Structures are given as C-alpha cells and as structure tokens.
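Quick log. Single chain, no ligands specified.
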Amino acid sequence: MARNLTTGMLAEVTVDRLEPIILIKLAFESGDLNLWTGIGDLAWDGDVYAGTGTLLALSPLQETQSLTAAGLTGTLSGIPSELIAIALNENYMSRPVTVWLGAMTDTGQLVSDPVRVFGGLIDVMAVEDSGETGTIQVTAENRLVRLEQPNLRRYTPEDQAIDYPGDLGLSFVAPLNDGRQIVWGRAE
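-> predicted structure:
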C-alpha cells in the first residue's frame, strides 16, 4: 500500500541516523491504553503515550498487494501484577487497535504526523502471571477479517424485527419468491 509521508517524515527517513518509534493505541471500554517504544511520556495528537522501552515487542507488519487480512501480535512484559488483574477483567474482544510508525529527531522531538501502519481489532489476549510481574500478549486481526465471516442474517420479517420491532418492510419480500411476474409500464 502506498503511504503518503509528511514533509517532516520524508526528510527524517533520508538522514544518516534514523530513530524510528512505534505508537500503539488500544481502545478499551475503560479507556484508551497508549504506548510507545521509547522512555517516558510522549504527547501526540491530544493523547499521552506511556513509554515501554524494550518491554514492548511487535511481530513484523505484513503488507501485500492482494486484499488479505494480516494480523499483528504485540507482547508487553514486566507488567506489575496489579495491572494484570485489570487486564483479566477488561472486555477486550473486538476493541480497536491502531499502530503508527513515527520518528524522533536528533533533539528527541517527535517528527510531525506519524504514519498509520495498522488498524484492526483485538482477537486474543493471553496473560502470564509469574508472581511479581507478568506478560500480556495481544493478537489483533485486520478489519478485513470480518469479510471472511459468513453473514448469518436473513431477509425475513422475523430477522428484521430483531433490530426494528414493528417494521413491516420485509413482510412484502416473501411474496416475491413465488415466481410472480411483475409488469412494469402497462396494465395487467
């Protein structure tokens, strides 16, 4: 997929010493979890991202020319056990995940407008607790994975009533299946 880089990012990727960073936003019901691969807090786009240093690892991002749903796995290690309890109680299925690739200047400033490299939904969250610290591994699927799932809804009045009780729009669909000929533009 072609990426449109900002002038600042384009200038940064052509320098001799590139300092790339990854920013991750996990949108949970209780609030967003914003992480980045540096040290300390980083403010960007109205949010503050907590630095994870070397405690955050991501699987390689895959891009193809075909329409495929490539996933992503992230592992965060060294988590205090009290935060493990929060992760275990959080509703995480199908929550949005966004990953950006950015760069830092020589002076430690974020180059404007990191590039979005992944957008998907959380599929599985595996938690390992070893007593004092633990590890959380999050697997996210690309949004395209929903195209591979069958649609279990039907065009029936009963199915329509699930979302719109009292709507009679689909009650006129069944008579169309009996092979009735519809004549347009002239009297029958």
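The chain has two domains: 7-148, 150-188.
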